[in-house]
Design a protein that fits this description.
The structure is a single chain. The protein has 466 residues and is an alpha+beta fold. Among the domains are: 85 residues; 184 residues, no CATH class. It is 26% helix and 21% strand. The protein contains 12 helices and 19 strands. A 9-stranded mixed beta sheet has the order 7-9-8-19-18-17-16-15-14, sandwiched between helices. The radius of gyration is 22 Å and the shape is globular.
Length: 466
């Protein structure tokens, strides 16, 4: 069990690394030697591409370690795919009593709370005519682009294996998944819901009153909620990801410091409309929302260096759920201010995302001493017909408080709207909370964002038209 399962910085200019829980066993009954196997991931610096692998080594009875053999044969990354293998020098040092009792207790409780897993193929037992394969791939998607897919039904987690180019990944429970823009929902969106619950009126606070860089750029009446809604009134092109893909915006994503990021985010896009009226997809706007939330908290506590993610999401939300260790930290800027990236930069495992989806679908229940804002939550989860959010690229697609909404009535043959909240990430990542109490997710990297087939099959489990 690695003591640190977060993404760890390296001296390398392009890559960081994370380790997950592996296995250790004796090489034979009569031998004091041990063999170790450890899943790990290379994670792109300042971004979210995640390349999963396994390393293995042996330590003999005298404490001498073999070379470490490693192999990477899969990734969740739309623009960079590779196989990698080799050996490394190693040194074994035995340390007594390094295990943190709290870490071990949290590890055991997380394992206890994880959903039971069955093969995706077992979904055929839930109803006549269910084609489980349609949850794993769609007609125009290359199966090789899939990292993992799953469906949660009544507390049961049906999951695919984790294919690689050289056989199934042996640690599918532990495989590290990138959030990319899922973070806009489960970090940005939930953070504002929590902030509004403890600081009423925070969502309507103006960005300009909190961030001098945006005040100087004339942001006027743009609120934190406007920024989270990607409706700041500033854009060049409202086509989906048109502005996001500009070279200047890509440079913003890879900028190391908060100063570089916030100066771009506040100044680059021109004012074209009134706040809250027009949607244009910018990760830079989500970054502004996060920076403003942190500034609001630090306004009353100027002596503190506030970890926004830990204060608004990890401690009040993830800790009661006993989620895994990997999701409890976020990537930040590489300067002393360490601003969270907000709109990307989380990592987690399949059980984490399955349980988060089920928790959101259940209304995000929390202990009595904790809460999130119900109005913001209901809007994000398409529970308020008067607050669907702004049209986002099509009339039947909306965006609200960091979450997407999609009317799937046409897909499943309903004669009235069926609005479905979902989360979406770059390359082909989706987490969908269907109104029949099923949660679908798939992590792919072939630029295919479709989940129509999953909606049709899920509707066979329980009718969403009723």
């Amino acid at each position: 069990i690695p003591l640190n399962q977060s993404v760890q910085r390296l001296a390398h200019p392009n890559w960081e690394i994370a380790f997950q829980t592996g296995r250790v066993w004796r090489t034979s009954v009569d031998d004091d030697g041990l063999r170790y196997s450890l899943p790990f991931a290379l994670v792109e610096r300042n971004a979210n591409c995640t390349h999963n692998g396994v390393m293995t080594w042996a330590v003999d009875g005298d404490g001498q370690a073999s070379r470490v053999a490693y192999q990477i044969a899969s990734e969740t990354c739309a623009y960079l795919k590779f196989d990698m293998w080799g050996t490394l020098r190693s040194q074994f040092t035995l340390q007594e009593d390094v295990a943190d009792p709290q870490l071990l207790a949290s590890f055991r409780e997380n394992r206890r709370r994880q959903l039971p897993v069955r093969p995706l193929a077992a979904l055929t037992e839930l109803g006549e005519g269910i084609d489980a394969s349609r949850f794993a791939a769609v007609a125009d998607m290359d199966p090789a682009d899939t990292t993992v897919s799953g469906l949660v039904v009544d507390g049961q987690h049906y999951r695919s294996d984790c294919p690689t180019r050289h056989g199934p990944y042996p640690y599918c429970d532990e495989i590290l998944l990138p959030s990319v823009s899922l973070a806009k929902s489960i970090f940005g969106g939930l953070a504002l819901m929590r902030l509004e619950a403890i600081e009423p009126g925070a969502a309507k606070a103006t960005v300009a009153s909190l961030l001098p860089e945006c005040a100087a750029a004339g942001w006027g009446s743009v609120t934190i909620e406007n920024a989270l809604d990607l409706a700041t009134d500033r854009y060049l092109d409202t086509a989906v990801e048109a502005d996001e893909s500009l070279p200047e915006h890509v440079e913003f994503l890879y900028a190391d410091t908060h100063r570089e990021k916030i100066e771009f985010a506040c100044r680059f896009f021109p004012k074209k409309a009134e706040p809250g009226k027009v949607w244009a997809y910018h990760s830079s706007d989500t970054y502004v929302a996060g920076a403003a939330m942190r500034a609001l908290l630090e306004r009353d506590r100027p002596e503190e260096h506030i970890d926004l993610y830990r204060e608004l999401v990890v401690e009040p939300l993830w800790s009661p759920l006993e989620l895994g260790a990997a999701i409890r930290s976020t990537r930040t800027t590489y300067d002393p201010s360490a601003h969270a990236l907000i709109g990307w930069g989380l990592s987690f495992q399949p059980d984490d995302i399955a349980r988060i989806g089920a928790w959101l679908q259940a209304g995000a229940p929390l202990p009595d001493s904790l809460s999130i804002d119900k109005e913001l939550f209901d809007g994000a989860m398409q529970r308020n017909p008067n607050d669907r959010g702004l049209p986002a690229g099509a009339a039947n697609v909306r965006y609200n408080n960091g979450f997407w909404g999609f009317d799937i009535a046409e897909f499943i043959g309903c004669d009235k709207p069926v609005w479905v909240p979902f989360m979406s990430g770059h390359g082909g990542i989706s987490v969908v909370m269907f109104p029949n109490d099923t949660v679908f997710y798939h992590f792919t990297d072939g630029y295919v964002y479709r989940w129509r087939e999953a909606a049709i099959e899920s509707n066979k489990i329980r009718n969403m038209c009723l």
